[in-house]
Amino acid sequence: MEITLTVNGRERFADVGPTTTLVELLREHLGLTGTKVGCGHGECGACTVILDGEPVNSCLVFAVQCAGREVLTIEGLADAGAASDSDGERHPIQRAFVEVGAVQCGYCTPGMIMSAYALLASNPAPSRSEIERAVSGNLCRCTGYVKIVDAIEKASA
Predict the structure, then answer these.
(1) What's the CATH fold of domain 77-156?
(2) First-to-last CA distance in the chain?
(3) Interatomic CA distance for residues 56 and 77, integer angstroms
(4) Burial, 87: exposed, middle or buried (Cβ in 10 Å; 0-12, 13-18, 19+)?
(5) What is the pLDDT averaged over residues 9-14?
(6) Contacts of 133 (CB under 8 A, 6+ apart)
(7) 2-73 sits in which CATH class?
(8) Cα-flanking dihedrals φ and ψ of residue 10, to 5°?
(9) Cβ distance 5 to 70 under 8 Å?
(10) Which among 115, 131, 141, 106 has a CA at the least distance from the CA of 34?
(11) How many H helices and E strands in the chain?
């Protein structure tokens, strides 16, 4: 089935099967490997992307459901923050994760950052508990989440 969707601000075309997931489309068909595959069952949040402004587990969404819709991945985030980022290379959330040391193995990081992006888009000044709630669907086995929450708090400032 041929579909057209917008990925990171660019119209894309793909020929996908009826059970191809969005994460498969992104990684295997479009070569956007920043979105990670963790559990494949919507439990870990590693595959979080923004679909029409909302964070979703891309392993739970069929690619055909995305026809005519907009997807933002970690690769497109720098462009989404270019107006507020003087070097044009990283979104402020990405910079905050690096500056605070919120990245360890890095596997969960793209999904965490996308969840943080969605939170800050809807609530630019969240409390720590709101941040914790926003990333509660993103599992990290390396950190105690303190630096992750610190990074999101820094980015909100």
Answers:
(1) DNA polymerase; domain 1 (1.10.150)
(2) 44
(3) 15
(4) exposed
(5) 97
(6) none
(7) alpha beta
(8) -120, 130
(9) yes
(10) 106
(11) 6, 5
Contact between residue 14 and residue 63 where contact means Cβ atoms under 8 Å apart: yes
> Among the residues of 29-91, which ranges form H helices?
77-80
Nearest to 118 by CA among 24, 43, 51: 51
User: Whole-model pTM above 0.90?
Assistant: yes
Annotated domain spans of the chain: 2-73, 77-156
Chain segment 79-98, per-residue pLDDT in tens: 765 444 445 578 999 999 99
Strands 48-51 and 70-72 come out as antiparallel
Q: Centre a 10 Å sphere on the Cβ of residue 79 and count the other Cβ atoms it contains.
A: 15
Q: DSSP state, 30?
A: S
